[in-house]
């Protein structure tokens, strides 16, 4: 890290110097690019694969007059001459079921279990009127929950690089050189800023890639619903990342060896994994999801999901964003105090009370 010795850098200059150092270090690692490419591939896979592999019609055999019954149904029909031939196809697992004449009607032959998807096609469904029709169905909502949750999870776990770099600097004593050149708070701010800039770049790329994935999957009509949700997702996930990053920094500053990092990262892991699993479990419960969308640690995923499902208004998103921003400010102030109090302490794990105590 280049510094000017004749004139001490200001706080903002020192912060930017540290941010540049963090960004240059991270983008030169293979893990950074592998993780990002994996996220992009996963986005395409979750969007495209269900339409590629989930759209096949059930394959059935039909005999005689039953052929006319299945015409126009969402079934892949194979015509055969006799009931015995149809039954043989079912036993050979070449078809899911056989539809054969039965007196004046038809009956379905199956091997072990009733073929519910075939039966649904044969049963006359009554007209359905939706009182509050949604622009997205349950399947599309579930995919969106998984995508938003995975993106938050990937970037939240990516913040662990801040903890690892902090521990490395303490373990190698480089931190003593750094703090003689830049303020400790600038070191913390620079680490968070550098990783936040890289994360923002990745989030923007994913936000621009999502519409392409939808078009490839033949779901272009959803763009009108997805685009606003993505627009909200970017600020929510970025504020959430700053929140998690400050916690990762503190987790790293409390220990002096990489092998001890596991003892301080439990709470941070909970803050990262909690939103993902919470939204996965409760995305079909509007009341619980509404509460989660205003809790700072889960709002980053819950509120964009509610917006996508058209269960929240813009004012709710603004209120949630304001609560999240206020929480980030408080957590940053607390993290700054703990980071400053523990960074120069080496040896075993530093207790939070000792890190919080004023410097003697």
From TrEMBL:
Primary localization: membrane
Subcellular location: Membrane
Domain ABC-2 type transporter transmembrane stretches: 118-336
Cellular component, GO, one term: membrane
Pfam families in UniProt: ABC2_membrane_3
TM spans (from-to): 31-53, 143-163, 197-217, 229-251, 263-282, 288-305, 317-339
Alphabetized UniProt keyword annotations: Membrane, Transmembrane, Transmembrane helix
Chaperone among keywords: no
GO molecular function: ABC-type transporter activity
Family matches, as PANTHER family: ABC TRANSPORTER PERMEASE, ABC TRANSPORTER PERMEASE PROTEIN NATB
Name by which UniProt lists this protein: ABC transporter permease
Species assigned in the record: Lentzea alba
């Amino acid at each position: 890290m280049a510094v000017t010795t004749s004139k001490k850098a200001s706080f903002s200059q020192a912060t930017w110097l540290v941010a540049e150092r963090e960004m240059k270090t991270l983008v030169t690692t293979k893990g950074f690019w592998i993780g990002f490419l994996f996220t992009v591939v996963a986005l395409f896979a979750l969007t495209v694969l269900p339409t590629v592999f989930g759209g096949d019609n059930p394959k059935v055999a039909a005999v005689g007059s039953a052929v006319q019954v299945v015409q126009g149904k969402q079934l892949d029909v194979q015509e055969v001459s006799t009931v015995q031939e149809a039954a043989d196809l079912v036993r050979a697992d070449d078809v899911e079921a056989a539809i054969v004449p039965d007196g004046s009607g038809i009956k379905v032959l199956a091997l072990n279990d009733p073929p519910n998807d075939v039966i649904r096609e044969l049963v006359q469904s009554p007209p359905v009127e939706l009182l509050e029709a949604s622009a997205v169905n349950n399947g599309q909502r579930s995919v969106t929950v998984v995508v938003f949750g995975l993106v938050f999870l990937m970037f939240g776990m990516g913040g662990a690089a801040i903890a690892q770099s902090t521990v490395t600097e303490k373990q190698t004593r480089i931190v003593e050189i750094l703090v003689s050149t830049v303020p400790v708070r600038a070191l913390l701010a620079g680490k968070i800023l550098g990783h936040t800039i890289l994360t923002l770049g990745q989030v923007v790329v994913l936000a621009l890639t999502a519409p392409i994935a939808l078009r490839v999957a033949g779901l272009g009509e959803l763009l009108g619903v997805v685009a606003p949700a993505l627009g909200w997702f970017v600020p929510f996930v970025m504020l959430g990342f700053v929140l998690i990053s400050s916690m990762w920094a503190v987790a790293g500053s409390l220990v002096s060896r990489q092998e001890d990092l596991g003892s301080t990262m439990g709470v941070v892991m909970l803050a990262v994994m909690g939103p993902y699993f919470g939204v996965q479990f409760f995305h079909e419960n509007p009341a619980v999801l509404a509460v989660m969308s205003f809790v700072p640690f889960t709002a980053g995923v819950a509120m964009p999901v509610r917006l996508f499902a058209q269960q929240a208004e813009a004012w709710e998103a603004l209120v949630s964003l304001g609560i999240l921003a206020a929480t980030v400010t408080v957590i940053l102030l607390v993290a700054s105090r703990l980071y400053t109090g523990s960074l120069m302490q080496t040896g075993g794990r530093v207790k939070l009370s000792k890190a919080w105590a004023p410097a003697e």
